[in-house]
Write a structure and sequence with these properties.
With 476 residues, the protein is α/β, with parallel strands linked by helices. Helices cover 38% and strands 23% of the residues. The strands form seven sheets. Strands 14-15-16-13-12-18-19 form a seven-stranded mixed beta sheet, with helices on both faces. The structure holds nicotinamide-adenine-dinucleotide. This is Aldehyde dehydrogenase family protein.
């Protein structure tokens, strides 16, 4: 099914073949499952031209009509959940439950976003003047997504961009373009031609988007290194940009928790999607009084987890999504071993087909070791012992990035106090991944620029316009 389908791009309401093709692999088998279009620069130009033409009508439609169409995207995802999940598992490697969760969450996101209206704020209204602040769409949005959550992250961009009255040119990652392309094919008859265009290709295509003179806003999710390139390239035409980048997220476990109770939530907070989650726990700080007990419960829980091909029943965690990332994580495991740090579990990738890495837990490595300071973006988690709350907060904040973090305690007041001292855009207390279409998500430091979600996220897809009306009649 996945391999027999001829995936096409969506340009001006037409399904278009690429100028060339890209091979897409299943990371669980390393087999080629499809050839995706590889867009030429001329094809990108055609998509941008179509989006610019469509903008004239789309931006002037009443917002109620745009809200209705964003809800239609939700319905389309739900109606096609099984097919989209199947493609997603094959290209991404995620478990079946994980794939379905992504589709359901993406649909809910569209509905949550569709509740918003663009505000008009009256600053002054008296006999002489009326001053109002409005928010107008920007134009053509270039949306660039990574491989770890291709549908959800695409929706995080499309839904608010379209709702605000922009048109979109979306580029998925070359590693996982298929589900996004298929969604585009399904949306062809729902959205007016040119409102949403989907082009696939390599990293060069991303660069062309960030340089394109007729794209006025770029919303990018990916690594911090690429984010810097996007910012540099977008600066030449002074595009508006939103950047959601990497992080080295810390969880802090206070001494009052029950290790057995907290272990499963700590596990999933670190290892969901085989730890390929920007906001997953990458460093787990545990108070020394309960360090051994938490470590033991985590290892015990981790031993109950099944790793394998996500298309198989009973699989909890799939492979790492691509060879580049697989080699990076293997290298980190090797260096951790070479530096003499002890694994409580895992530590070595098995031989054989597929980019599989076992759940790997490292026992209290030094604070400045590679496994602590690097974003692994794979199933490797260092556990770190701390004594003092000020010391652990300083360690958690000792990073150039500041995406998310979590605090675990039965004392909610103390947990809240600790949360407020973390230099990250998001902090969860006693849970993880509690995202909402209404709560802003943003990175501090080098984890990004701007915000997604909620009113703050929606306004990132608008320009501010102040209209001042002089009410006093003009006289000669
Ligand atoms: P990546 O930066 O390599 O690629 C992301 C996207 O950018 C891909 O579509 C890629 O083709 C494109 N791209 C590459 N070079 C480009 C360039 N010069 N100009 C424009 N586009 C370019 O990231 P990845 O490896 O796909 O994803 C993993 C990274 O993403 C991790 O660091 C992770 O933390 C981060 N991430 C962040 C969030 C967030 O919301 N903050 C969410 C998911 C992933």
């Amino acid at each position: 099914m996945v391999s027999s389908h001829k995936y096409t791009m969506l340009i001006n309401g037409q399904q278009i073949q690429g100028a060339a093709t890209l091979e897409v692999l299943n990371p669980a088998t390393e087999e080629i499952i499809a050839h995706a279009p590889d867009a030429s620069r001329e094809q990108l130009d055609a998509a941008v031209a179509a989006a610019n033409t469509a903008f004239l009508q789309w931006s002037r439609r009443p917002i109620a009509e745009r809200q209705a169409l964003v809800k239609e995207i939700a319905r389309c995802i739900e109606d096609n959940k099984d097919e989209l999940s199947r493609i997603f598992i094959a290209e991404m490697g995620r478990s079946r439950d994980g794939a379905e969760w992504e589709m359901v969450t993406a649909a809910n996101w569209c509905r949550g976003t569709a509740q918003y209206d663009l505000p008009v704020t009256v600053i002054e209204d008296n006999d002489e003047h009326r001053v109002e602040v409005r928010h107008t769409p920007i134009g053509v949005v270039g949306a660039i997504t990574p491989w770890n959550a291709p549908i959800l992250i695409a929706i995080w961009k499309l839904a608010p961009a379209l709702l605000a009255g922009n048109t979109v040119v979306l580029k998925p990652s070359p590693y996982t373009p298929l589900t996004t392309l298929r969604l585009g094919e399904l949306l062809r008859d729902i959205l007016p031609a040119g409102v949403l265009n989907i082009v696939s290709g390599g990293n060069e295509l991303g660069q062309w988007i960030t340089e394109h003179p007729d794209i006025t806003k770029v919303s990018f999710t990916g690594s911090t290194a690429t984010g810097r390139r996007v910012m540099e390239s977008a600066s030449r035409t002074l595009k508006r940009i939103t950047l959601e980048l990497g992080g080295n997220d810390a969880a802090i476990v206070l001494p009052d928790v029950d290790p057995k109770v907290v272990a499963p939530a700590l596990f999933w907070g670190a290892f969901f999607n085989s730890a390929q989650v920007c906001v997953a726990t990458k460093r787990l700080y545990i108070h020394e009084d309960i360090y051994d007990a938490v470590a033991q419960e985590l290892v015990k829980y981790a031993r109950t987890i099944t790793i394998g091909d996500g298309s198989q029943e009973g699989v909890d965690l799939g492979p790492v999504q691509n060879k580049m990332q697989f080699e990076k994580v293997k290298n980190l495991l090797d260096s951790t071993r070479e530096q003499g740090h002890r694994f409580l579990l895992g530590g070595e990738a098995p031989e054989g087909k597929g980019y599989f890495i076992p759940v790997s837990i490292v026992d209290n490595p030094p604070q400045d070791s590679r496994v602590v300071i690097e974003e692994a973006f794979g199933p490797v988690l260092p556990l770190l012992k701390y004594k003092d709350i000020d010391e652990v907060i300083a360690w958690a904040n000792d990073s150039d990035t500041g995406l998310a973090g979590s605090v675990w305690s039965n004392d909610l007041e103390q947990a809240h106090e600790v949360a407020g001292r973390l230099q990250t855009g998001t902090v969860w207390i006693n849970e993880m991944f509690a995202f909402s279409p209404h709560a802003p998500f943003s990175g501090h430091k080098q984890s990004g620029l701007g915000a997604e979600h909620g009113m703050e996220g929606l306004l990132e897809f608008t320009n501010t316009q102040t209209i001042t009306t002089r009410k006093v009649p003009m006289t000669a």
